[in-house]
Design brief:
It is a single chain. This protein is α+β, with helices and mostly antiparallel strands. Helix content is about 50%, strand content about 10%. Strands 1-2-3 form a 3-stranded mixed β-sheet, with no helix packed on it. The protein is rod-shaped and about 75 Å long. The N and C termini lie far apart (about 70 Å).
Length: about 80
């Protein structure tokens, strides 16, 4: 019984690690694909005021408010 466990334990561990790594790799590829489309942001045309500078974009350059786009200006990345 012990000799069977010595054989199956490394085999099972290897199988589980391979499955886990392939799943994690797939998740990373999907998240990179989504952020790759939105990484280029444009310059804001116009001069935003102080209230506009308080409306910051998320780290992935997405605006929560509807009909706003993330653009860069002298006060950082803002939703305008």
């Amino acid at each position: 019984m012990v000799s069977i466990m010595k054989f199956w334990t490394p085999l099972l561990m290897t199988f589980l690690y391979m499955v886990l790594l392939s799943v994690l790799g797939e998740i990373k590829e999907r998240s990179d694909f989504k952020t790759r489309e939105r990484t280029l942001i444009e310059e804001c045309w116009g001069e935003p005021n102080i209230d506009d500078c308080n409306k910051k974009c998320s780290k992935t350059f997405i605006c929560v408010r509807v009909n706003y786009t993330c653009c860069w200006t002298y006060c950082g990345n803002i939703c305008w």
